[in-house]
């Protein structure tokens, strides 16, 4: 049998190799992409919003998103940097500090692989006080039992910034470091005077406390101290929690930071593109409007607001197509 290869044989062989390569690429393209979202404590806003987005954006079997409870912004940033999570929610300030190696991350090195997928909604800073504690301003926290939130949370970072702005030292307080739901339970039992929480309103822990406890106040964060903070930190903005957001609580002027969806430069562009495209689909829009009070604030038009870190190339591709980002 001759071993001479004719042009016809080579052509057939080439077609075979080509078909095999196409099949291989097709199989690879159909391989499921798993995309985890680090959220926050179950009593906060990150957790329900994360679950809502995961359900709406997932397109199995090709794209599967899952939301995971976590300790919040700092924990999520660290998990993304280590590869333990593909993405997570973070306050804009925490993401900026991590990327630049400043603030909370001073001396820990820059986490330069962090990338923005989308800015989501403003997170209001709540300073919740038991009515019986008679706390009307930050200055009244001296000598009180106050929870600053747990280590690893963005709330703890901002609570310390706020205390400093009002001239309060941590040693001036009887400080505790609890999740919001734990702090609320302790307040309901008479063991806590006030606690900080940063998140979209309304949040379940505060809603339940206002409805079942002895009444609460939301302490305003306004005036010259707040103005100075906004001037010093560009990620802070003025905000107002509307009247009756929480039972028997009037409108309260406060501060806010952006809640952002962060990912890693190491996550493939095509995966992030699909997640971003599905985030701004009609299906997700309907789920956001119906699923959570903060859903209506998650708008494509503000997806790049307050971007203190680079936008992921996969997300940037979508935003360019949508006319939100120049080439």
UniProtKB/TrEMBL annotation:
Gene3D superfamilies: Periplasmic binding protein-like II (3.40.190.10)
The keyword Lyase is assigned to this record: no
UniProt entry tagged with the keyword Signal: yes
Keywords associated with the record: Signal
Signal peptide: 1-29
NCBIfam families attached to this UniProt entry: TRAP_TAXI
Name listed for the protein in its UniProt record: TAXI family TRAP transporter solute-binding subunit
């Amino acid at each position: 049998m001759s071993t001479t290869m004719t042009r016809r044989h080579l052509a057939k062989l080439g077609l075979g190799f080509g078909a095999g390569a196409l099949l291989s690429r097709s199989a690879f393209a159909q391989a499921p992409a798993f995309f985890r979202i680090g959220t926050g404590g179950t009593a906060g806003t990150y957790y329900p919003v994360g679950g809502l987005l995961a359900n709406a954006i997932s397109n199995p079997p090709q794209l599967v998103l899952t939301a995971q409870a976590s300790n919040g912004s700092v924990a999520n940033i660290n998990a993304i940097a280590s590869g333990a999570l593909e993405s997570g929610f973070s306050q804009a300030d925490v993401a900026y500090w991590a990327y630049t190696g400043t603030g909370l991350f001073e001396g820990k090195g820059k986490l330069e692989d962090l990338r923005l997928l989308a800015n989501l909604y403003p997170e209001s800073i709540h300073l919740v006080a038991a009515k019986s504690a008679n706390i009307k301003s930050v200055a009244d926290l001296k000598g009180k039992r106050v929870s600053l939130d747990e280590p690893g949370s963005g709330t703890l970072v901002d609570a310390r910034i706020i205390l400093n702005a009002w001239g309060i030292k941590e040693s001036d307080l009887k400080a505790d470091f609890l999740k919001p739901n734990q702090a609320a339970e302790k307040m309901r039992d008479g063991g806590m005077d006030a606690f900080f929480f940063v998140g979209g309103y309304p949040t379940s822990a505060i809603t339940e406390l206002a409805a079942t406890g002895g009444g609460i106040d939301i302490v305003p964060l306004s005036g010259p101290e707040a103005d100075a903070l906004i001037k010093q930190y560009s990620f802070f903005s003025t905000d107002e929690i509307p009247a009756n957001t929480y039972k028997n609580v009037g409108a309260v002027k406060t501060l806010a930071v952006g809640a952002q969806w962060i990912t890693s430069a190491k996550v493939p562009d095509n995966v992030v593109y699909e997640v971003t495209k599905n985030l701004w689909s009609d299906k997700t829009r309907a789920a956001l409007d119906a699923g959570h009070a903060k859903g209506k604030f998650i708008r494509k038009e503000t997806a790049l607001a307050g971007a203190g870190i680079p936008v992921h190339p996969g997300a940037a591709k979508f935003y360019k197509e949508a006319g939100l980002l120049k080439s």
